[in-house]
Write a structure and sequence with these properties.
The protein is an alpha/beta fold. Helix content is 41%, strand content 20%. α5 (91-104) packs parallel to α6 (142-155). The radius of gyration is 23 Å and the shape is globular. The protein starts with a helix and ends in a 7-residue tail after the last strand. Residues 14-28 have low confidence and may be disordered. It binds nicotinamide-adenine-dinucleotide (NAD).
């Protein structure tokens, strides 16, 4: 493990560099795989991929094991760096996110071949590398996405070129360096994973148009997903969501309240899967709010809600969008703007269903609660608020018919029952993790298999043993 002093020094030196007032060895050309120019990154990764074709699956697995170890060792460095660089999220939660990536991202075990045998011989279907993959990563989980994508893509036998979010490129490139250190230590090729120091729309375009790049993966909002899907290449799109959570009158209300506060406040609501609006049966809403306030939420009412709208959102011609300066900020900072001195995990308020807090994907620790009459109304409003993203939706209920009805109506990639939203990515719920959830293109929770192509090998002259 790295000691406290080293972590502090490292973070301090990177932060100095971010503010332009000092020198950081990591940002001055010493980072493995990080290039000044996209054309150099593309040339280097092409060379690496050629070499990588000769590596065994066991060697791939050794690299993945090293990435897991280094990610655990440097989780705190990246968590602090991510918060400092982007001004978003919580260090303690970002540490957990890195730990989840390290421990629960699948490796080569996810590559399951299939076989068909019969009178006409034996046919083997194997999962082959796609080649060089171009990946665009978000500001909300910058290093987590780089590491998670790298693990799945390398395990699949691919090489990767990243174009990280410009506002989170320092920490994303720290992760690129970490992945390369892990690869080299395991005897892998140089520059199997590359990136650029200053990612821009131009570097992104160059990456997308490079003929050597055979697959594109976008993790972000609607703009980037649309751009990648129009590229003419095989593309995986992991886009925006606005996950609703329903609480009915059969739920364990105290547990539902705790779970929702835990999920909605995690990393200040940055995760795309986090509960972003709540539809509660009228007769349980008072209890739900009471238990939420006993478990880290702060309730605001009346004019304060209108004031908070003015802080968190921007209005133009009656349409609301997020005030980017406030994405991922601590709840206490919002309350300070309202003249309240408190530092809870989450702010809650009652609103009507058409309120902008319900309809806009805010990624802030603010959860609107809408009272509903029955399950039909809850489902109708929740489906509307999800806006057809087909991303994530959650429910607290013990009524199986209602669970089924909501799941059918909302059609989301992730559907969590009676747990915090993060159970959907393997935290307190079964299953592996990913930070690239591909709703629009249907791969679902991406893993090694998502980054492969099927190849069929046929032997028509027997060789089966029955
Ligand atoms: P963003 O869309 O602003 O940026 C994502 C990435 O796309 C960045 O690297 C950005 O530079 C790039 N980009 C944006 N528009 C582009 C374009 N037209 N062409 C090429 N590149 C472009 O997203 P963000 O603010 O960093 O992240 C938050 C959004 O991402 C939310 O909507 C959230 O729901 C979504 N998200 C989804 C997943 C998922 O797995 N589905 C995971 C994380 C975040």
């Amino acid at each position: 493990m790295l000691d406290e002093k080293y972590i502090s020094q490292l973070v301090e030196s990177v932060i100095k560099n971010i503010s332009g007032s000092g020198a950081c060895p990591l940002c001055e050309g010493n980072q493995l795989g990080v290039f000044d120019k996209m054309e150099d990154a593309l040339a280097a990764v092409a060379k690496a991929y050629k070499l990588y074709r000769n590596y065994t699956v066991a060697q791939r697995e050794k690299m993945i094991a090293n990435i897991r170890r280094l990610t655990l060792e440097e989780a705190e460095v990246m968590a602090k760096m991510g918060v400092e660089e982007t001004g978003m999220g919580r260090v303690e939660d970002k540490i957990i996110k890195h730990q989840v990536v390290a421990n629960k991202t699948p490796g080569t075990e996810d590559l399951a071949p299939s076989v068909i045998t019969g009178d006409d011989g034996l046919t083997l279907i194997e999962m082959a590398p796609f080649g060089i993959i171009g990946s665009i990563t978000p500001s909300t989980n910058p290093s987590e996405t780089v590491i998670c994508n790298s693990m799945g893509m390398i395990a699949g036998g691919n090489a990767v070129v990243f174009n990280p979010h410009p506002n989170a490129c320092k920490v994303a490139n720290y992760a690129v360096d970490l992945v390369n250190r892990a690869i080299l230590e395991a005897g892998g090729p140089e520059n199997l994973v590359v990136s650029v120091k200053k990612p821009t729309m131009e570097t992104s375009k160059m990456m997308m148009e490079c003929p050597n790049v055979k697959m594109l993966v976008a993790t972000g909002g609607p703009g980037v997903v649309k751009t990648l899907l129009s590229s003419g290449k095989k593309a995986i799109g992991a886009g925006a969501g606005n996950p609703p959570v329903i609480v009915d009158d059969t739920a364990d209300i105290e547990k539902a309240a705790k779970d929702i506060v835990a999920g909605a406040s995690f990393d200040n609501n940055l995760p795309c899967i986090a509960e972003k609006e709540c539809f509660a049966f009228g007769k349980v809403t008072d209890d739900l709010i009471k238990y939420m306030t006993e478990n880290g939420a702060y309730l605001i009412k009346g004019d304060l809600i209108d004031k908070l709208v003015k802080v968190a959102l921007v209005e133009k011609d009656g349409k609301y969008s997020i005030n980017k300066k406030w994405v991922g900020k601590n709840a206490g900072l919002f309350l300070k703007e309202l003249g309240i001195s408190a530092d809870p995990r989450l702010i809650i308020c009652e609103t009507p269903a058409n309120h902008p807090f319900v309809q806009v994907e805010m990624m802030m620790p603010i959860l609107p609660i809408v009272r509903v009459k029955n399950i039909e109304e809850a489902i109708e409003l929740a489906v509307q608020a999800e806006h057809g993203c087909r991303h994530s939706a959650h429910i607290h209920s013990k009524n199986v018919d209602r669970l089924t009805a909501f799941a059918r109506a909302v059609e989301t990639t992730i559907f969590v029952k009676n747990a915090p939203s993060y159970a959907g990515i393997g935290v307190g719920g079964e299953g592996y993790t990913t930070f690239t959830i591909a709703g629009p293109t249907g791969e679902g929770l991406t893993a090694t298999h998502s980054f492969t192509r099927q190849r069929r090998c046929v032997m028509a002259d027997g060789l089966h043993i029955v």
